[in-house]
Amino acid sequence: MRLAGDARRRAATAGIYALPLASIVLALALASLLIVAGGHSPGVAFSALLSGAFGGRNSLGNTAITATPLLITALGIIIGIRAGLWNLGGDGQIDVGGLGATVVALHVVSRWPNPVAVPVVVLAGFGAGAVWGGIAGVLRARRGVSEVITTLLLSFVGAALVTYVVEAPLKDQYASFPHSPSIRPYLWNVLHGSQAHAGLILGIALIGVVWLLLWRSSVGLDLRAIGLNPRAANFAGIAVERRIVLALVLSGGVAGIAGAGEVLGVQHELIENLSPGYGFTALAVALLADADPRYVLPSAVFFGALVSGAPVMQQRAGVPLEIALATQGLVILFVVASFGIRNRALRTMRAGRPVASLNATVLYAEAEAVE
Amino acid sequence: MSFAVAVFAAGTRIAAPIGCAALGETVSERAGVLNVQLEGMMLVGAFGGVLGSDLTGSAWVGLLGAAASGALVAALHALICIVFRAEQIVSGIALNLIALGLTSFLVPVIFGDNTGTVAGLNAVDVPLLHTIPALGPIFFEQSPAVYLVYGLIPLTMLVLYRTRWGLEVQACGENPHGADTVGVAVARVRFGAVLFAGLLGGLGGGILALSGLRFFVDNITGGRGFIALAAVIFGNWKPGYVALAAWFFGCVDALQLQLQARGVPIPAELLTILPYVATLVVLAGVIGRARMPRQLARAYTRGAT
Questions:
Q1: Among B35, B47, B93, B266, the residue to mutate for chain A (most A Cβ within 10 A)
Q2: Which of A225, B31, B133, B177 sees the fewest Cβ atoms within 10 Å?
Q3: Between B203 and B105, the higher pLDDT residue
Q4: Alpha helical stretches, state H, A262-292
Q5: Distance CA B157, CA B175 (A)
Q6: Segment holding B125, helix H or strand E
Q7: What is the chain A residue with the closest CA to B224?
Q8: Residue B281 at interface with chain A, using a CB cutoff of 8 Å
Q9: What is the complex's ipTM, to 2 decimals?
Q10: Cβ contacts of residue B146 below 8 Å, gap of 6+?
């Protein structure tokens, strides 16, 4: 018994650090092969990437700017994953969150003092994203429609909505590209010589909030129970339907905060395509962090560096930006494969399940069988 | 051509690639495997189709290449999800990202500065049938690839409902443990089902590229793979209804395009979301009576609960 416990603990500890690192290394190795196939030098490419991501204040700032929405959105996605739900609509929720934030910033708090205006705007972003997530949540809880599909479809709708808004109702008259008028509230700069903004601080604070929510609150306990075994959760008296809606509301809301952060700290106005694929990258961040808020920061920094260093890599080494995209996918692939192996190894040592799956769907199939 | 006929004809044209992919996905999901990377398979298929047509000058060979490319991606997904038993959704998302990045990356590498179009598939009127009023112009004045998709509908139904393999597929999706007990090679059947989805998904992408633009642009599929996934749910995992669902989406998309062209006073961006909203509305209404395969997206481990 004790031996099994020791082995399990060792496997778990090794797994937490070794597997993600090994996955990253493998992914980067494969990316190098791609770079070579394209006729470029991996050495030059990666050194360009590193300097673009970390070489100097401006670069560090860029990495921070990119990592911030990834960090925040990933936290939202983690809330969903822990409840067994896949929120793939991060992009749409970020866009809509930015929309809500902009509307409030322009029409409600524009004359308020900044320290008061900013939280209100962030809250508006949360609200808008929460509504977006909530739609998917209700469809899932009440009608059993997989949130995989609904969050994705809503993502398209949200992006198109924002595009419409910046081209018509909120259009800035003298703009060369469509965007809303500039907003007054802003997030403070945190690194002189760069554009890094206080959204990063907000994100780090959210790490604690999300962790507390999931592991120190009854709501979080319910969510995690649903994620691990929805049938058991149901029989234990947890209001599964309502919690599912709540999970997606929170997940979307947090992503909306990321959107508000983008508008307040980076763009200072609403633009179309506010989220250039952050939703999926944030999923990669969440998965690399093993859906654990405590590991999201390094994961977000990794992907933030990848994304912000990619243009420099293109500039100096001639490697197309899409490599960064492919590398993200490769990292997820290796991470998920390795975690799959690890989780199964752990499971044979004790009864347990991997963190997230479509378990909740079983609930509805069973319910049908009963009636 | 009347407005309605024009819309339905365009709708059929738009729906064909989506329906093709959705048919393949139906079989895979019936077997219990979800392919979120359908979008990626279509994209890779479009790339492979254009490449194949470029290399051989034949669009049909291109379509073969398209199907093969999709199957390659599917094989990878099957390996990760069936052999390593990793989360199907995550693998799907990862493959989507890789497909997007890889295809965009490879365009300059493989096609260089060549921006010309490749041999494609022109619309062919079906003799006699296309003279039927209304239905003729809608269904029988399409690209031959569309006629191929018409044939795939009964073929998929045949395979799923009337072959031994098809029944095994259904068993694996509903009760793999039971199927395993009576000797069905669950892993192998699921692998085959995923490959089938890859073949048809890639084919769909090839049809999209070769009946349409005839060259590859980044992200040419633009989310159609996800629509195909929705169509499978929409169609209650039954090939006939899935095809209908794809057709519905195609027609709504054609409608909003026509409305845009006619200068309807609704902003273009809002019109583009019409098909997605329509799909969501139908999903919300339909699902109450729908039954998804019980073991969809759950890895099968012999002996585990």
A1: B93
A2: B133
A3: B203
A4: 278-288
A5: 20
A6: strand B124-125
A7: A153
A8: no
A9: 0.86
A10: B12, B13, B16, B207, B211
DSSP E strands in A1-145: the ranges are none
Q: What is the pLDDT of residues B248-288, one digit of tens each?
A: 999 999 999 988 888 888 888 888 888 899 988 888 886 65
The span from the CA of A367 to the CA of A252, in Å, is 28
Contacting residues for B143 by C-beta, under 8 A, at least 6 apart: B13, B16, B121, B122, B123, B124, B207, B211
Indicate if the pLDDT at residue B65 is higher than 90: yes
Distance CA B253, CA A347 (A): 47
Contact residues for B126 (Cβ-Cβ < 8 A; gap 6+)? B140, B141, B147
Q: Please report, for chain B, how many H helices and E strands are present, in that order.
A: 13, 2
Nearest-angstrom CA–CA distance, B117 and B112: 13
Which residue did the predictor score with more confidence, A366 or A77?
A77
Structure tokens at B156: 């998929």
Please report the pLDDT score of residue A55 as a whole number.
Answer: 84
Q: Which bin fits B153, alpha (ψ -120 to 50), beta or left (φ > 0)?
A: alpha
**Shortest Cα–Cα distance, A325 to chain B (Å):** 5
What is the value of pTM for the model shown?
Answer: 0.87
**CA separation for the pair A234, A319 (Å, rounded):** 51
Distances (CA, A) of A85 to A89, A136, A156, A228: 12, 10, 19, 11
| Euclidean distance between CA atoms B222 and B103, whole angstroms | 13
Helix A199-216 and helix A218-228, axial crossing angle in degrees, nearest 10: 70
Sign for the pseudo-dihedral over CA of B92, B93, B97, B98: negative
Taking the CA atoms of chain B, what radius of gyration do you get in angstroms?
19
Around Cβ B288, how many Cβ atoms within 10 Å?
A: 10
**pLDDT score recorded for residue A353:** 44
Tens digits of per-residue pLDDT, B185-232? 999 999 999 999 999 999 999 999 998 888 888 888 988 999 999 999
| Separation between Cα atoms, residue B227 and residue B245, nearest integer Å | 10
> For residues B196 and B298, which has the higher predicted lDDT (pLDDT)?
B196
Dihedral (Cα; B11, B12, B16, B17), 10-degree rounding: -20
How far is A249 from B97, CA to CA, in rounded Å?
26
